[in-house]
Amino acid sequence: MIVLNLTLIGLAITLEPIPFTAFALVLASKKGVMKAAAFIIGWILSLAVVIVLTLAATGNQPPSSGSTTSQAVTVVRLAIGVLLLGAALRRRLMMHKPKKPKDPPKWQAGVDKMSPLFALVLGILVQPWGLVAAGVAVIVDAKLDSWLSALSMLYFLLLSAGTYLAVEIYAWVRPERTQELLTSVRAWVADHTDQVIMIIALALGAWLVLDSIYLLAT
């Protein structure tokens, strides 16, 4: 069940459109491939630190089933699921309202002069931390007592960065086609951001709520 939960959360993280927009801007900039690699390092590193801190906090000893701590963790997952459902409803309502123009973030103006270090920090800052919190609530129940459990954590890390890794590899292999790809992807994301966020929040939120209710009931 832990692997299934991490798979769903990892997919939600990697498909979140707003952070990917920032990544696409970095990749499309001058010397973007190198800076995008730094962005991905920051992205994966931040998730790795979260995993290590979570396992350290539990002492690599997940709470026993049915204990007060285990039930508290399940309630936290339930609360995160409810919040995600609320976010999905909010996005659904926003789709029917005219969008107000927003000024782009200040860092975008200097994206061509951005250093790899700044790109690395940006990869940490734009992480969808609400979804990462859902991952933490699942990892609390994990125990690294075999190579398979260690692989499950590595799998979660790579899956959470899957979209970014795929586009980065494409940029290395087909640099002449990268700008064209990024232009089309950014245009699609700009037109479908609310829909994608709504679907991700609705699907993951519903799963977390139903799974948490089942665990509390049994």
Give a structural overview.
The protein is mostly helical and 218 residues long. The mean pLDDT is 90. It is built from ten helices and no strands. α1 packs antiparallel against α7, α3 (32-58) crosses α8 and α3 runs antiparallel to α9. It has one domain.
Give a short synopsis of this structure.
By secondary structure, the protein is mainly alpha-helical. Helices cover about 80% and strands about 0% of the residues.
- Average the pLDDT over all residues and give the rounded result: 90
Indicate how many domains the architecture comprises. Answer: 1
How many strands in all? 0
Tell me the distance between the termini: 15 Å
What's the helix count? 10
Report helical residue fraction.
over 70%
